[in-house]
Amino acid sequence: MESNLSCPTCGCEHVYPDGSLWICPECGNEWSQDAANDAAGAAEGQGDIRDANGNVLADGDTVTVIKDLKIKGSSQAVKGGTKVKNIRLIDGTDGHNIACKIAGFGAMNLKSEFVKKS
């Protein structure tokens, strides 16, 4: 039995396998082995920030903007194909998880889904 597996419903750590299912003795929840493996894999890689192509990003990487991005409060837009050097990964609560400086625009935050690793 995996020691870090817990119930997805109540969070109980005393789950046990029964055939192809995992069972929680506290709430009675049952789920498949495949779902348990997917959850364990997601827990291991949850800190990874990936670009639009699925590549893992790191601090200091250079990325390219893949589409025109409107800037809130401005009539300008960051054009697709703009290279952004020396990015910093942040834990943005609004979905913006890249902090950077773009020439001509200054400091701003970007979403990783709109960039690709260069």
UniProtKB/TrEMBL annotation:
InterPro entries membership: YjdM, YjdM_C, YjdM_N
Gene3D superfamilies xref list: 2.20.25.10, SH3 Domains
Domain called Protein YjdM N-terminal: residue spans: 7-32
SUPFAM superfamilies assigned to the protein according to its UniProt record, in alphabetical order: Prokaryotic SH3-related domain (SSF82057), Zinc beta-ribbon (SSF57783)
PANTHER family according to UniProt: PROTEIN YJDM (PTHR30305:SF3), PROTEIN YJDM-RELATED (PTHR30305)
Biological source species: Acetobacter indonesiensis
Name of the protein in its database record: Alkylphosphonate uptake protein PhnA
Similarity section: Belongs to the YjdM family.
Domain Protein YjdM C-terminal: 49-117
